[in-house]
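To make this tangible, we now present a fold written out as tokens:
***
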Amino acid sequence: MAPKPEHALGVEPHCAGFVERAPWWGGDLQTIRNHLIWRMQPLESHASVLEFSTSDGSGDRLTGTLERPINTTKSPLIVLIHGLTGCEDSFYVRDSARFHLARGRSVLRLNLRGAGTSRRIAGGYYHAGCASDLLDVVGALGYEETRHGVFAIGYSLGGNILLNLLSRLPRPHRLVGAATVSAPIEPLEACKRIMAPRNLVYHTLLLRRMKRDVLSPLAQLSDRERQIVQDATSVFEFDDKFVAPRNGFRTALNYYERTAGARQVRAITVPTLMLHACNDPWIPASPYRALQRQGLPNVEIVLTRSGGHVGFHERGFADTWHDRRMDDFLQRMAPEIGAGIDPARSGVFPG
């Protein structure tokens, strides 16, 4: 049975302050702002294209672009993980890459399985719990890129995937810290929100893009799976009849429960920053509030009154608030850089 949609966004009055940049007032305008005015601008870096094998026996590979800054500083490699229907060239990924490159940090803009240029070398497609793919990527990076560790940043669905990884990191590992932006940490609640009547346009566009990506000519789908995807009339139906069974889950509800990032957070041992806006039109803030009350020792959760979904365009700043907040987090944790790396393996990382 499909979940009943929520009918109100319910901005919480006790969210932290956030001053929007005119004329992008409110969650919806904050959300769509970059889609309206964004332009592809070159990144000032030395770039190289990478491919990463997966360990599940499928033969699928992931791709990414490693950007090295013109002037480098001692800093962890920044790994940027896009959201649903995104890729390494999504506006928020490129903007964050530009922000960190300007501060002397190397950046990996990753394409998840079946996204962006990885679509040509992967027959499968990523989902909310595919943490093993991220682990494969981090494990394949060489010592030169990771000698100061890795700081991973996940946007929207990419943030939920990242939380699943952080909760089950092996030892040793290279992650020295992480951050999420607008992550759907309770997927069922996010599904209800996106299916709400006030989000009809969002829901229609998102479902259309999900179908477009999954039905690419190189996707390894049976005729029955293709028909199921084409016939899906909602995100829930798409997840229930296609994503869940294809990835070993009984139903969409089982898929949402087992991949919910909110249920993984307590197990996180590396410094992690979670950012979310109370007026995100796609994802409720209540799961973040519930986590805040738990007093998690390794996780900092920050809510703003406004900011929309991966928006955070603030008055008086060209850079987004979430990039600046992550920069502050990185600088505060600087003494801990390298804490997640086994010194005994220094210089002998695979790759």
Notes: Residues 3-15, 336-351 have pLDDT under 50 and may be disordered.
